[in-house]
Amino acid sequence: MRRALSILVALLPTAAVAAPALTPSEIVDHAPNSAWTDVPEDRLVVMTLGDGGQVVIETAPDFAPVHVANIVSFARAHRWDGGAITRVQDDYVVQWQPRDEKAPLPSRIVAHPPAEYERSRQGLSLQGLAFFDSYAKAVGFADGWPVGSDGGHVWLAHCYGMVGVARDMPPDTGDGQELYVVNAEAPRQLDRNLALVGRVLSGMERLGALPRGTGAQGFYVDKAQDVAIRSVSPAADLPPAQQPHLQLMRTDSPAFAAYLNARANRTDPFYVRPAHGVSLCNVPVPVRTRPSAP
């Protein structure tokens, strides 16, 4: 623990911070409980695939409240039960849809949500990343989410594992029935062009390993290839024994600052020279299962 504490430093002020003594994974393993925060169950949605595998998604109502409310309503109405993953485009996205997109919309659904592609920075605490970004004047973490900013506004970034709403041509914004998750190097050109509504906290390895679609844009050409979805439910609606209990590392913690430093200055035996830099999406916020009470 003494080695871990010795590098729990403030966020990188420049790219020339001394190389850390521990690897990123070691820093995560040594992080104290105070560096972690519970993910509220009412922000989680659980997707169960046809083979029983589960994917846990944290929603982002502070960034896309109308879309997130739609998604929760769709889940409560069992809209995706019997639906399928129909698109797996290599180095891009995995996309899924409900059983019947033409069925009448459940009550409380906003059929045409506003373009929730960015929000005011007011009220958000932003931990900045001190490296150049090609897609935003500034990047960092706002309440634990990877974001870009122009100073007055912030927006969620299309990092690996982020979940967004598929849509038709503008001004359509999508109602939330068709969702996608980024399964590749960050397609940041999509930032502020679609509504990002959350991120996968558990089960991304299942989605990333799915067979790639061979049709246009990665869609499966044969319905037999579709990956069945057994159910999608708000975690809070599940029996207590089935609810996931997850924690995220606090991005305002000394442990995260050390983790960020280590991601930018790799000293693992494999590395010959540290990069002295890191991109926003190459700093995934660590997640873990909440430890049981002693």
TrEMBL record:
Enzyme Commission no: 5.2.1.8
InterPro entries membership: Cyclophilin-like_dom_sf, Cyclophilin-type_PPIase_dom, E_coli_cyclophilin_A-like
Keyword terms, alphabetized: Isomerase, Rotamase, Signal
Gene3D superfamilies: Cyclophilin-like
GO MF terms, alphabetically ordered: peptidyl-prolyl cis-trans isomerase activity
Signal peptide from the UniProt entry: 1-18
Domain PPIase cyclophilin-type stretches: 45-217
Enzyme class: isomerase
Database matches in Pfam families: Pro_isomerase
Protein name as annotated: peptidylprolyl isomerase
Species per Swiss-Prot/TrEMBL record: Tanticharoenia sakaeratensis NBRC 103193
Lineage, opening ranks: Bacteria, Pseudomonadati, Pseudomonadota, Alphaproteobacteria, Acetobacterales
